[in-house]
Amino acid sequence: MPSKTPHTNGNEPVENGINGTKDVEMKDDAPNPLKGGKGKKLKEGEEEMTVVVPPSKGSKLSAPPQKDTDGDVAMDGEAAGEDDGAVKVDPVTQAISGTWNCCSSAVCSILSANIRSLLADIKSNFPLLERAVTLFDARFTLRALRSISSIRKRLTPDILAQVITDTYPSNSPAARSLLVALDRENATFAKPSSTEMEIDSESKATKNGKKEQKEIIPEVDIFLGILTQIYYLDNKITQKGVVFSAHLAERIHSLNRRTLDSLSARVYFYYSMFAEQMHPLPPSPASPVVSLRPALLSALRTAVLRKDVDTQSTVIVLLLRNYLSTSHITQADLLVTHTKFPDNASNNQVARYLYYLGRIRAIQLRYTEAQQQLTAATRKAPSSPSAAGFSQSATKLKLVVELLMGDIPERATFRVASMERALEPYLQLVQAVRVGLLGEFESTIKQHSETFRRDGTYTLILRLRQNVIKTGIRMMSLSYSRISLRDICIRLKLESEESAEYIVAKAIRDGVIEASLDRERGFMKSKEVGDVYATREPGEAFHERIRACLGLHDESVKAMRFPMNQHRLELKNAQEAREREREMAKEIQDGDLDEDDLGGEYEGM
User: Fold this and answer.
1) What burial letters (b/e) apply to 420-451, b meaning 16+ CB within 10 Å?
2) Which of 58, 97, 505, 549 yields a CA-CA distance of 20 to 30 A from 144?
3) What transmembrane ranges does the database entry give (predicted)?
4) Which residues contact 352 (CB under 8 A, 6 or more apart)?
5) Are 233 and 270 in contact, with CB atoms under 8 Å apart?
6) Helix (H) or strand (E) holding 462
7) CA-CA distance, 249 to 301, in Å (whole number)?
8) pTM of the model
């Protein structure tokens, strides 16, 4: 074991630390003293240290070591290093979040790994956008948009600023506008030195080790703008979000690129979400959603002219939502009448459109159409847990419409695990309507009025009072062959026998019950129930099921995806086969080719 040889130069413990010096001689000297060897390199190192560091060993040991602010020993003529116990701070982490006061190196390494992973996830979408532009295929853009759900929970302004500075050159106006929106306009555009932060698809290395700056496509600008919108939306920065969204929509309109269709639809979606959150909130006529309508209508006209299916379907849904939020039912109906929803729109937009259309039809007392639209919306609703809110809203409105039609929903609807708790007030409502108890119906409305108002079904539920009375009369007509109007008035808690007489007469005229009314004696006499299969009811129910199955088949055929231009390839192959057939037939006629030369069987078109 060497006695004091490793301490002769005073630099050995620092060289063994984390942040070593770049001096070649010091790196060559380091391993041999640690191993305790006394080879040639050690002697050469001692000779060089006598020249470079004149003070003797005693003077070095007697002088107290000078420390910097980080607690490391300051070396003469070298940058201060770190000893073995110091924490290694990642340069990317320092650039993003400043100084972390971590209690251990393990915590810092985990946080640094998470940041590197998030930066890599965001940057991995840029090649997808480039492929979407090169191949003119929107599926790659949709893949990039689907990754936002896993990114948005970890978004911060520093992360976005780091992505911008790593992607754009320092003189890019798009990068400056994004940094100003994030309040990070002073961010430096220095590239990270770590090779782990580099993505091969973003840039190519030259022979000199420098990167060649690639031209950033506008799709990357809009994608980062959407991430900025999401950050504003999640952090309730509404005012800035509206201004930034308006600027982003104007830039998309000026670019006029078909590869921006899917991205522009998402921009207008978040633009509308910001307007709905600004005060005064809807349904106030002074709400900002009213001032947003001209911009949405202009975007709809432009999308129709450009045949932009994604933006067209999204803006139509947003306009319907806008009109319904302020109870402008007539304007919403006119929009539906004068516009045609795209047939090849995405499934999510179709489900939203059917839901809003069903709500409009329910308010207009067109319950049969509303029930059909809402049934289709619930069937098209995504099955993922993130879409449970939409399924619950559509199911609630569908239940109320079915009650207004005089039907009783199936109990299995209320037993679905994802809807059991949300549909509990509606279960009590259905039970009161099914039995025909007016008192329980009114108490249920009073108890859950806030829930019904929040769901937007309160006004429709108030219409159910007449249905409850009709249901009660139907139940009594089935239970009694003859019942007095006074008993009907007592059971239904009506004001007088005259009102009971009017209600019974209207139920008989509407076909709710099969009975006759005796006004002189003051009672209702029920007729004998005949064979239900002798009526048209079973045939109509069977016809409805067949029509639903045929509609599902047609939608499935429309949703099938086929390779692009495959029919052209088949026509080309068929034409070449016909030409070969003509050539061979001509050679056979000329005698240049006989049946033996054909090699057996001959297959032609």
Assistant:
1) eebbebbbbbbebbeebbbebbeebbeebeee
2) 97
3) none
4) 317, 321, 377, 390
5) yes
6) helix 458-462
7) 14
8) 0.67
